[in-house]
Design brief:
By secondary structure, this protein is an alpha/beta fold. It contains 10 helices and 27 strands. The two termini are 33 Å apart.
Amino acid sequence: MHIVILGNSTVAVAAVEAIRSIDNMENKITVVSNEPFFTYSHPLLPNYLVGEVEEDEEKFSYRRKGFYEQNKLNTILGDAAVFIDKNAKTVELKSGKEIAYDRLIVATGGIPIVPPMEGVNLENVFTFTNLTEVKKFKTALPNIKKCVVVGGGLIGTRLTEKLSIYGVETYLIELLERLVVLALDDYGAGLIRKELEKAGGHIITGDSVKSILGEKKVCGVKLASGKEISCDAVAIAIGVRPNMDIAKNAGLEVGRGGVITDEYMRTSDPNIFSGGDIVETYDLTSNQRRSIPILPIAYAQGEVAGLNILNREVKFKGGFPMNSMKIGGIEFISMGTVNPEKDAEIIERKYDNGDYKKFIIKNNCLSGAIFIGDIEKAGMFNWMIKERFNVKRIKDYFLKEDFGWKYFDRDTRNLRISRQLK
């Protein structure tokens, strides 16, 4: 059987590892990517930009060198897939080459969200979602003294920190009234803001870039408030949307949040699977299907797709947002719902040493949590969210220093001891 994977990141790696774990190298696997690079770690792109890690370093690679050879992969890198003919079971590439498949995994990821504004095509306007764009940014960086970062989410805040420490005067512009809205609450976002300002960043919230100024090259931005900021570069780091045009044009079923798949990561075509940023994922904490572009979910979906291509009938039951980051002296992990509805129960504590814990409970189930500083027991609470565990009996102990499995009922403890609970 010939398995073709469109994409060369998390989903692709997970699918390859799943397939090769059981097929004895019997199936042909072809990986197609529009970028010409070995699979790399997207979270390290800000570090790569400022020279903290280089492209050829092992830690920048998503897998060890030799991954392709060890798994007997046929790779077509630097040539984008442009059309899927699901009836003929072929993929057409930008180069004109055509590839026949027996099973196909569409893992084309996300593309940067670029808001409508004048001047986005000027020189020194960069997006920040792939190595191709970041390489252009890195080449220009020695001549950049002042940069405007558009977007105050996880990418924008990390980029602002790295550029500020590097010595670039950096302005972070966020449309909403606080930073990292999807990952932290007001208190946590305030701590992140202080750390960015401590690093030298200028933070502007509740405003947006209306236009980028310049004739051929960026010379500044004009904000919706009317304020103008001079700069040498603009980095758009708002986030990504599903790169699902190729799936849509192939006639696969799509929704507002991405490609529609079943629990087996199978699309509306039984021979085509999908996963990662491109698909709609069932959110266990909101009971909605939406895009959740995070690495752990992408890996789990890729693994499920790979196993089910070989008829293992393994289910992906859904996921929820999980984020972790370190900015300055602030390290945090958040999961599930961090901006709860009014009827949710909140348990929280601010510690004298700067640590912070917050738990959101709805219908006696943990639906979200934030850990700042002390993140040691985050995995236990992640399990509770995933399993929709009834926390009615133990929630009052969440903030105790010795909280652990001993507070759970005997049956749960025994399952944990026997490693039936992961």
